Amino acid sequence: MTHFSYRDGELFAEKVSLTAIAERYGTPTYVYSRAALTEHFRAYSEALNDYPHLVCYAVKANSNIGVLNILARLGAGFDIVSVGELERVLAAGGDASKVIFSGVGKLPHEMARALEAGIHCFNVESEAELEVLNEVAGECGTVANISLRVNPDVDAKTHPYISTGLKENKFGIDIHRAPDVYSRASELPNINIVGVDCHIGSQLTDTSPFIDALQRVLALVDELSARGIALQHLDLGGGLGVRYQNEQPPHPAEYIAALRRELGDRDLTLVLEPGRSIAANAGVLLTRVQYLKPGDEKNFAIVDAAMNDMIRPALYQAWLSIDPVIPREEGNSRHWDIVGPVCETGDFLGKDRALAIEPNDLLCVGSSGAYGFTMSSNYNSRGRAAEIMVDGDQAYEVRQRESLADLIRGETILPV
Ligand SMILES: Cc1ncc(COP(=O)(O)O)c(C=O)c1O
Ligand SMILES: N[C@@H](CCCC[NH3+])C(=O)O
């Protein structure tokens, strides 16, 4: 996390002190770095510079409109999974013609809105969805560009909840059925076949499962071509991992070089849908220690961020770094479980962390820019964290904290 570093005994985001951000905006607060987002996006676009490509940032990783706007200005496309994500992309100035719509459960009204906006392509995930899309496009008096998302049955060797390319997963169409589904698609009047797609999972730290999947998808491309169905693009999804603790995932340039070796000189545009590798290490979560509860068995540090703000440790046993914003003398350190105020035993951000801390100290939860705020909730009727974007020596509030009034807005009791 090179954009978040210590200077003179204090943690900074770029040139802005995290203490100053916490004092001004309160905690818990997500802090993002524009420079990091830019660097991570460019790692993809520069490695593909001389190759036909479209890098569609996976909006689910971090859909803050300020984040989307920074990526839109860099020329990013976007991978969306709902009409809500589409509206956010459009509000952020994203180009609809670079939007790809993934997801197993697209609703007819979402399809209609995406057609109206003029998106690039739908990644169709089932035969039933293909028929509905054909009908909706017909009703809209238009033709839908599609890829089929195929399930190549490749083990991504990641956490089971974020593995998506195995037969037992709900995603995509069995790659062996795909030729027949393409034939069916080619007969439908309101469907235009443009590509093929697969996404095998998230937080992959090795390129071999990607290559395995790519080889299987290329075999399908060749089979389709023999049947007279020519594709314009191949979308390999997202999934490249990041360093949270001591993982050593390949750099995007290394990953892309490996893909290009497989692609050879085929006439296919390469589409990628990275989320985590762009956003995770471009953000942190700031939280303040409220109470210390040392005990015989365990020492608990109760902080003001909870599983409703950052659910990854509770949901995937994910490890995130937790560092003091202003470190104290190490001699006073003890092992703490860093827990939130939510009434769940699973409400923790980290366990057994050696830290020298006192009440009111600020802690920085690292690698939180992806699947942090976007997976947050109002559980326990807690408001949501603020979101701040740091740009050099400036900090901008890109989402205000929810007020208590926001938490009851729009709800009502029965009149009698
Ligand atoms: C279809 C699709 N594309 C892209 C992504 C982004 O994945 P990642 O954040 O691991 O790059 C996901 C999430 O795993 C996904 O389901
Ligand atoms: N939310 C997951 C990854 C996304 C999976 C989406 N297909 C995580 O935090 O690791």
UniProtKB/TrEMBL annotation:
Binding sites annotated in the UniProt record for substrate: R276, R312, Y316, E344, Y371
Cofactor list: pyridoxal 5'-phosphate
In-chain residues carrying the UniProt-annotated modification N6-(pyridoxal phosphate)lysine: K60
Catalytic reactions on record: meso-2,6-diaminopimelate + H(+) = L-lysine + CO2
EC number(s) reported in the record: 4.1.1.20
Record bears the keyword Cell division: no
Subunit-structure text: Homodimer.
Family classification: Belongs to the Orn/Lys/Arg decarboxylase class-II family. LysA subfamily.
Family matches, as HAMAP family: LysA (MF_02120)
Stated name of the protein: Diaminopimelate decarboxylase
Protein source organism: Porticoccus litoralis
